[in-house]
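Explain this fold:

***
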Amino acid sequence: MYTNSIFTVTGLLVAAVAAVPKPELQHHHQHHPKRDIVWVTEYQEVVETIAVTKTVWVKPSQTQATPFSTQEVKQVQPAAYSPAPVAAPAYVAPAAQSEPAAAPAYVAPVSSEPAAAYVAPVSSEAAAVPTSTYVPPPAPYVAPVASSSAAAAPASSSAAAPSYNSPSDSGSSSGGQSYSGDFTWFDVGMGACGFTSTSDQDVVAVSHVLFDKVSTGNSNTNPLCKKIIYLIGADGNTYPGEIVDRCPSCAEGSLDLSESFFKKVTSNGDGRVLNMKWHM
């Protein structure tokens, strides 16, 4: 009896469950409200350090420049704008530093003092270039007669010079050697004999041939220095002159005269007068 009751109750429960209406299984989309877009701005600070080098050239005349320290320049660049939720921007390397300009070539300082212009000394022995040739009229040579009016040789303050032996192949007149050659003029000054003359003095320079024949090793003590010689002028008169210099370009019988003495002896001849005579 008890067993039948259990089966009866169980059957009723199964029938009741089967009779319960079941909702239809249908697929429904879940609807959600739309979300607003949120924009997020991110800023990134990039620090770039640029080394600045300064070159200072110091001239010898200037003082040494004081040392200086390198200044660091910070440059801030804003990061590129990127909307969220984009990933963080990649690292941006600082811009490459430009290479420093090549150092300027060193230029030696120029002295502020003006350079003195070099003036070549005027040689007292240079022969004047002839512009014309004066040919004196032929006249018989007359030896001058010693007179009281002839200029006396100046006394020398130095020790007595050795005697001078003139060449034996020249003719003699008034006890001295006679020569024939060209007369020219030059700008006198400090001569080989060691003293200074002026253009208005009656002075001459003899040929290096005669001067060197009696050389003592020191031109200031040459026996011919301050010796009086006698020149036969274009007018036939005799003019005494003093030896003060050595002429390196004169032939053996030629003489180089001061300008005023040349004009006096040659009667204002031009530059060079040929075949003139003189004796010691």
